[in-house]
Amino acid sequence: MNILLVEDDKRISEFIVKGLQEKNINVQLASTGNEARELLFANKWDLILMDVMLPDIDGIQLTKMLRFKKDYTPILILSALSDTLDKIDALDGGADDYLTKPFHFDELLSRINALTRRTKFNYEKKSNFHTCRDIRLDTDKHIVMKGDKVVDLSPKEYRLLLYLLENKNKVLTRVQILENVWGIQYDTNTNVVDVYISYLRNKLDESNEKLIHTIKGTGYMLQE
Q1: pTM attached to this predicted model
Q2: Cα-flanking dihedrals φ and ψ of residue 159, to 5°?
Q3: Are residues 139 and 129 in contact, defined by beta-carbon separation less than 8 angstroms?
Q4: Residue 29's closest CA among 44, 49, 46?
Q5: Whose CA is closest to 45, among 94, 93, 5?
Q6: Per-residue pLDDT tens for 203-223?
Q7: For residues 181 and 157, what is the distance between their CA atoms, to the nearest angstrom?
Q8: How far apart are CA 115 and CA 125, in angstroms?
Q9: Distance in angstroms (rounded) separating the CA atoms of residues 52 and 65
Q10: Sheet of strand 129-132: strand arrangement
Q11: Residue 8 confidence class, pLDDT cut points 50, 70, 90
């Protein structure tokens, strides 16, 4: 395991580095935000332990910066800030977990193991292809095929189809679809889901067989 520790408190960093090295874990220390930024983009990390209050760039800014660049390396925030709003700000900014200082090393190690197990599971589970009948969506190339023909989809149609394929054979409510495709701030009274389902049907359905089924009073289901 290759861990980046971003921590400016020498006493805490020495404690963490010593403990991780005793567990045969490689750890690199960055004591400032700018130093961390250089290391974050220069190397591949399995996990990032991120302090919040740093010289120059703070840990939340660094977390948001990573997520903006589509880097989803697990981030465990280590902070003396224990207020609920501070935790919410960190998690909403893209952090995966939050541990309040002071903490026992065994708890830190347990959180690290949990995050790496979860990441490994998600990586193994993730597929570059999603299929249903003769529909094939390639997330690497960002294209959709129906049989041997490319289907021209708008970005939102593509995202909607991907969400339906990821949840194939499951009933999805309109609210679930709105939250995952348009975002939770979207007006739940809108009929935009129904409109875009209609767009997809026009492009994907055969004349005698529906791919996307309406579940009355609930939502939709893409059925194998």
Answers
A1: 0.56
A2: -65, -40
A3: yes
A4: 49
A5: 5
A6: 998 756 788 999 998 899 998
A7: 9
A8: 15
A9: 14
A10: 129-132, 135-138, 143-146, 149-151
A11: very high
